[in-house]
Specification:
The complex is a heterotrimer of chains A (about 260), B (about 325) and C (about 290). Chain A is an alpha/beta fold. Chain A has two domains: about 170 residues, P-loop containing nucleotide triphosphate hydrolases (Rossmann fold, 3-Layer(aba) Sandwich), CATH 3.40.50.300; about 80 residues, no CATH class. In chain A, about 40% of the residues lie in helices and about 25% in strands. Chain A contains eleven helices and ten strands. In chain A, strand 9 and strand 10 form a beta hairpin. Chain C is about 75% helix and about 0% strand. In chain C, strand 1 and strand 2 form a beta hairpin. The complex binds adenosine-5'-diphosphate (ADP) and magnesium ion (MG).
Amino acid sequence: MSDILAVDGLTVRFGGLTAVDSVSLKVPEREIHGLIGPNGAGKTTFFNAVSGLVTPSGGSIGFLGRTITTMPPYARAALGIRRTFQSLQLIPRLTVLENVLMGLHTEIRTNPWASLFTLRGRDKGEKEAQARVLATLDYLGIGATILSQTGTLTFAQQRYVEIARAIVSSPPFLMLDEPAAGLSPNEVRDLDRLLRRLRDERGITILLVEHVISLVLGVCEQVSVLDNGRLIAEGTPEQVANDPKVKAAYLGEDSGADGH
Amino acid sequence: MWVRFCERWFGLLLILGLACLPFFLDKYTQFVVNLILVYVTVGIGLNFLLGYTGQFAFAHAALMGIGAYTVGLLTTRLGISFWIALPLAGVAAAAIGGIGALPALRMKRAYLALVTLAFAELIQWVLIRWKDVTLGTDGVSIRPPRFFDYALKGDYKIFWLILVVTVIMYVIARRLTESRIGRSWVAVRENEIVAQCNGINVTATKLVVFMVSAFYAGIGGGLFAATLGYIVPDGFGLLQLVLHFSIVVIGGMGSVFGGVIGSLLLTTLPELLREYPQALELIYGILLCIFIIFMPTGIAGFLKQWRVLPPEVMSRNWQALRDRPRPEKRS
Amino acid sequence: MDIATLLVAGLANGSLYSLMALGLVLVYKTQDVINFAHGEVLATGAFLGYTLYKVVGLPYPIAFVVAILLGGLLGGLIERIAFRPIAHHPHITLAMVTVGLSFALKGALRIPYGRDIYVFPPLMGHTPIMVGATAISPQSIVTIVVALMLAGALFAFFAYTTMGKQMRATQQNITGAALVGINTGRIFSFTWALSCLIGAAAGVLAGPLSLLYPDMGTNYLLKGFAAAVLGGLESVPGAMVAGLIVGVIEMLFGGLISTAFQEVSAFFIIIIVLMFRPHGLFGQKPVHRV
Ligand SMILES: Nc1ncnc2c1ncn2[C@@H]1O[C@H](COP(=O)(O)OP(=O)(O)O)[C@@H](O)[C@H]1O
Ligand SMILES: [Mg+2]
């Protein structure tokens, strides 16, 4: 199996602080890969570097066999790197439809003549896009909310809207930054099932940052552990869970140790 | 379907009703109506930039001036047909505005305002100083446009021309805001980082919206020139700009309806206050502050909240989604 | 014209641009918003000075002090009434309010002063002092000296007073400042007051150098912008030095090339800075924050 993401010696510095310190990580296709570590370990920064939001001070990032280290973020998104954010980043005043359509920006092919200048303004691209949004929302079980104002939905629904925006373009690769934060145990179980379905039914490779360790250990095939920007352990969930270095890293920071 | 149907027929009826206005209005009222329509285009254009994309810029009056002078100089001094000059007015404003704004687009948001304010002064200065071309402060009088052999002379006849162009610009605006382009504007306004992670090139989007906005200003300026029949550089200064800001803010930021409502109210206001021109700036300034603080979505937002106006969902023909069969809810 | 003469005149105007840029930078650093009403603050200061000196008949130094204190009061009031309630609104709201204020202030000046032009008599007569071939107008000297004194007082204020130190802390990090117990609301009011006090001072000083009319602020605002951009938009010493540079460049432009170009020098300075040194002479390269 080939690697979809190949990060080599990635280093990100903010002034004097080294947030990510020569981290190398390979994610094979169709894997759910966990990335854990205490608060401030550099997980979000790692995501930001892969999405192109921060410029690395060193190392390289490869995606689907291409080097994307210096590619701007919008081009990476067009290649198929999609993500969610640690805190909800939706537009609350707009409908779910509009929010999720943002995820299709690079996919919609409009014919400007037909859509802008003809009398009826029929727009096939837009219609297909709406159908894709609807299908995605139905897939996530929130199809009924399509015309609701996003800010009026429950927290869990809004998390799903964000996931919908990230997967509506059928990307090969998805990065989720703490998707279970703030969900109830039942909702975490739904999320667990969803992640497996995304991998099995849609073939999406997932990189998952999560503090709810039960979710990580249950769903991931491989787990990498960051501490102080450094990669301190890597392996199957069992190997990582029993690694003394990992236990030491979480010591005194047990809020993350078991989630709830 | 029903809502869309109503909206469409209501729109047609409105246009037909408007088209009959010249038979009922006196000359002065007709002139004011013409101005209102001109400002619909201008206001919608600024709303793209300010309301939809959240970019603060000061060049709109100057860009309108570029449009007005393009029409004025091309038709009067070079004898080019109005029908060619009007689109060129839009293109000229978009091109010059785009070049002017380019250096600021990659910088922090404050810079666009700084650059465009200086740019607006530069345009004023060119209009005044480049006498050989622009005739300076003497101004330019505009020859009435011709429709085949028929001269559209006077407020009544020019009205139909303005009406047609305004309707076209309005329809294009609605469709732009219902497409991925309009949504990319809002995405940039709300959160540039999220926009980028969804494949939106933020700098390119800002350039596009600035140029589209400038195009509207240019077309509006061309119509303005045809309406007034005579233009001077001073007409495109800060007083013009505050009128534009007020149209967008009071009408409703981020709403195409807002541009229409705003121009209706704010074009009539100065006509009502003709006795007190000195108070105009004070009133505009205070109204701007009051609306932006207490009613940031403007009158259009208020009317949409009370369902007097339909919602403006940014996806073409979204109403069809209302009528689809509801799927079973998955667990 | 003699280069040295141009230089002195440039420094005199430039010190006013410095003061304008200082006021803009102070507010920008604390609240991340450009105060587009700052030109009208200058015009208000100028007319206050004019009215107190010429109409009321106060001695000049007293008129000056009263005018700038009133300017400071105006700034504090603006912050308290118009800004405090909306401090958490989106950036565009704040910027738009300053635009609204700018027109409101101009409109308020327009009611008593109309569209006429007023002349503020120079304090020390018109006769230039001749140093060799260099003609120096006494008013230029007064302007430069007073502006430098104000700037010096400002630096001392930031370096030595508690309020000044708290203001700097707030500029660095608002949340942090609030956490260590600084009353940030008071800091904001004070920043606006200080900024407008300096702006009004520039106005009173500008009176004899230029003509007085309610629209006079726009030109100074633009030059202040150019100076602020050249100084890096966030640097107080940068604004100070850049203002002088802008004043001198403008005079050299006017004296050596053409006075017509002098009017648009602000635009060219801003564009050239953005193209070749976008973070200005003294600003730091921006650190990207996600
Ligand atoms: N844009 C930034 N500028 C400066 N420091 C940052 C920035 N982003 C993150 N950091 C710092 O980098 C470190 C890692 O942060 P982060 O990646 O958010 O950790 P995690 O997501 O694992 O909790 C933290 O010390 C954080 O303060
Ligand atoms: Mg994080």
